[in-house]
């Protein structure tokens, strides 16, 4: 089964995916190194050397991804100075970066289910309650939405940007 494509979208051959939000998102976070940097930011990593060490990326690749994610608005630089050291910058999540957490958690949840033989390396729990954390599609009414019940339609309020 598939999503329910409504209106002019029902004929998949009659329209193009111009301006697709998934394509735009993948342009920013569609690489292994981008997702590893984000994972580490969610875990609390802020310093360049720790990002490179914990992800296994070369310094050059880590620097490029940190710059890319900062320019895209997912991370921000914040100055810090260790006692007796020179001023440096660390990387912190912005609201835009924090809002991507459910997507990254979804990928980890999928990997836990299908790629770890039932034994995921980490458990994700609500701090204080120990309740497992899961990502799933829910409607505004709070009901879980399965693929077959997902309707897709054109947004009548969207104006097409010039570069789409």
Automatic annotation (TrEMBL):
Keywords: DNA-binding, Transcription, Transcription regulation
Pfam families: HxlR
Keyword flag Transcription regulation: yes
Residue ranges annotated for the HTH hxlR-type domain, each copy included: 20-119
Coiled-coil boundaries: none
Entry keyword annotation includes Transcription regulation: yes
Protein name: Winged helix-turn-helix transcriptional regulator
Taxonomic placement: Bacteria, Bacillati, Actinomycetota, Actinomycetes, Streptosporangiales
């Amino acid at each position: 089964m598939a999503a329910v494509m409504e209106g002019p979208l029902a004929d998949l051959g009659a329209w193009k995916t111009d301006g697709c939000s998934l394509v735009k998102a993948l342009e920013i976070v569609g690489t292994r190194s981008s997702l590893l940097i984000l994972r580490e930011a969610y875990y609390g990593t802020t310093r360049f050397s720790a990002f490179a060490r914990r992800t296994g990326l070369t310094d050059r690749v880590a620097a490029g991804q940190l710059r890319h994610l900062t320019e895209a608005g997912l991370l921000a630089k914040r100055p810090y100075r260790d006692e007796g050291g020179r001023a440096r910058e660390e990387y912190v999540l912005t609201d835009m970066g924090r809002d991507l957490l459910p997507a990254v958690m979804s990928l980890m949840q999928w990997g836990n289910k299908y790629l770890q033989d039932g034994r995921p390396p980490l458990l994700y729990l609500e701090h204080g309650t120990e309740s497992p954390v899961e990502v799933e599609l829910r409607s505004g009414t709070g009901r879980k939405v399965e693929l077959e019940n997902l309707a897709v339609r054109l947004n009548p309020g969207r104006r097409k940007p010039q570069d789409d």
